[in-house]
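Hi U.,

Before I forget, here's the chain from the pilot set. I'm dumping it here mostly so it's searchable later in email.
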Amino acid sequence: MTARRLRASLKGWGGVGAMALALVVTAVFALLLPLSSARGDGSTGTGGQGVGQGIQARADTCTDPQDQSPSPSSDDSGETITAIKQRGYLSVGVDQNSYRWGYRDPNNTAKSSDLEGFDIDLAHEIAKEILGDPSAVRFHAIPTNQRIPAIKSGQVDMVVRTMTITCSRLKDVAFSAPYFLTGQQVLAPKTSGIKGYDETLAGKRICSAAGSTAYDKLSADKKAGALTASADITTTVPNQLDCLVRLQLGQVDAVVTDGALAASQAAQDPTVELKGKTFTDDYYGVAMKLGADDLVRRVNQVLVDYRKSGGWQASYTKWLSATLKADSPSATPPTAHYK
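Structure:
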């Protein structure tokens, strides 16, 4: 990578290359000190264990995984919710590295320690409806490949972290109804000859996050012959933002990730852009522990209320509309269907 290109890549959003490199280093600290209070004072908190009993999932014949969540309920008397209320706060796994989804804005000196973004807004909304206080939530910084283990171990009550609902994941965790629609897309330098998810990926090094739906898609398509055989998909990272760093350093030629996340990364770095259209339909859901049906139903009711109140649309307008096209299928909340 030339010095000129590296300097150009550092111009976007206050030097995203430098920021992202720092985030890779600080990810270790995020794991060692995973809890951050969102009570507005930026102080760290000490989280308790997540709650809810695990059961065996029945996803062997799963189709339309986004439609497998139970119907909404406003009942707060269930075992899982009662335990959360007694504790006094909601424990939520989030990202702190995804621009406009869950991140710490280095330019926001007034509240530099507070997480913000579309997913963070939703977590506050859930806390407000369940506990009566939007600040009654403590955040854990969870890498992409640790989202499911964090739920299963009880480290968090839920994960609100651009997590796609899939049939395979339904065997390990429960999901709310979908709150966002996106799809996999290719991100590459503007000067690249890559045109999209097609034959122009031949011989190219593609980065994806370990444990992500992007990697699952790449792997399945490689085995099925739907992805050009010479494409190299061996580069995986713990967090999808790490792929942008690899791309900026010239260590890979392209990134495959959710289009909504890729759009935010392109907004950070003016030397990269989305290539081609999305090639999957992916629905984000709030992930919770298997067996915590009272919490799942309650979150589904929160999502119903969030859409009706205009809160969802206001959050989308604030965080995401600037990076997604006006005709994007992501511009309105997906319609919920329940099992």
